[in-house]
From TrEMBL:
It comes from Telmatospirillum siberiense. Belongs to the transthyretin family. 5-hydroxyisourate hydrolase subfamily. This is OHCU decarboxylase. Pfam families: OHCU_decarbox, Transthyretin. Keywords: Decarboxylase, Hydrolase, Lyase, Purine metabolism. It comes from the Bacteria. One of its GO terms (biological process) is allantoin metabolic process. The lineage of its organism: Bacteria, Pseudomonadati, Pseudomonadota, Alphaproteobacteria, Rhodospirillales. Catalyzes the hydrolysis of 5-hydroxyisourate (HIU) to 2-oxo-4-hydroxy-4-carboxy-5-ureidoimidazoline (OHCU).
Length: 290
């Protein structure tokens, strides 16, 4: 499928815009209809924020109708084949179209318990999650108050909408992935440390970049930038063992740490993802930086 550019999105007449994005919010074309007059959009992120703002400004009845428009996860609509194209692909990506009898029973119980407590279907942006994650989310949200859970469900609806927009529109090119490695045992940048970046998709790993840190513990160029930024699961692997041996530090034999893998998701390809590593021969930590 050829993605629309943002210029093309902004040039659509109001009717064509509303039709193109009618399904972004499940069975709720009114959101795209109102957004048509709020262009131009400089990014998919800005467009999604505008859509979300329209939902936030809607009345309580409209918000509840939006929640009720969503199908149960692995529910009766899925069994009958009555899901929308977006929902079918999203549920399939999480493996919900291939449940065992035991897993189907677990989802049926979870859906029933949730509906009994809150009165609307459980909603989660399931793309890139697995079955175990989804069932854990069911359990984690059952103790929410009704008001808190309605807010959580609406936030998940907005995440789903953003994912659907990214499936239709070419992202703005500003996103990038960077790293910075600090040797906290010696209080200095980790220069000369090998790094490998791989994309994890469909059970396979594809190495896309191998590099070595410079004198500042950084790379001379971003690991990913612009069109290279793709939504999904990635792995950075840092060759800490080789670095510490080369730096002359005393290690156990074998070394406690060798390769340090960090798996992380990119969910917004228009943003800057900075994944630093603070490492010693015996420990490491990471976080999403800026």
């Amino acid at each position: 499928m050829t993605l629309l550019t943002l210029d093309q999105v902004n040039a659509l007449d109001a009717g064509a815009f509303a039709a193109a994005f009618a399904a972004v919010y499940e069975h709720s074309p009114w959101v795209a209809g109102q957004a048509a007059a709020l262009r131009p959009f400089a990014s998919v992120t800005a467009m999604a924020a505008t859509f979300a703002g329209i939902v936030a400004a809607a009345g309580d009845d409209a918000k509840l109708a939006l929640l009720m428009a969503h199908p149960d996860l692995a529910g009766r609509a899925a069994v009958r084949g009555d899901l929308t194209a977006h929902s079918r692909l999203e549920q399939a990506s999480a493996g919900l179209d291939s449940l065992t009898a035991e897993e189907m029973a677990a989802f049926t119980r979870a859906n029933a318990d949730y509906r009994l407590r809150f009165g609307f279907p459980f909603i989660l942006a399931v793309k890139h999650w697995g079955k175990a994650h989804i069932l854990a989310a069911f359990r984690g949200r059952l103790d929410n108050s009704p008001a808190a859970e309605r807010a959580t469900a609406l936030a998940e609806v907005d995440k789903i909408a953003f994912s659907r927009l990214l499936a239709l529109i070419e992202p703005a090119p500003g996103g990038r992935l960077t790293t910075h490695v600090l040797d906290t045992a010696r209080g200095r940048p980790a220069a000369g440390l090998g790094i490998e970046l791989a994309r994890l998709e469909g059970g396979a790993e594809t190495v896309v970049r191998q590099d070595v840190t410079n004198a500042d513990g950084r790379l001379d160029q971003p690991l990913l930038a612009g069109a290279e930024m793709a939504v999904g699961l990635w792995r950075l692997t840092f060759s800490a063992g080789e670095y510490f041996l080369a730096s002359g530090q005393t290690l156990t034999a074998p070394a406690f740490l060798d390769l340090v893998p960090i798996r992380f998701h990119i969910d917004n390809p228009e943003q800057h993802y900075h994944v630093p590593l603070l490492v010693t021969p015996w420990s490491y930590s990471t976080y999403r930086g800026s």
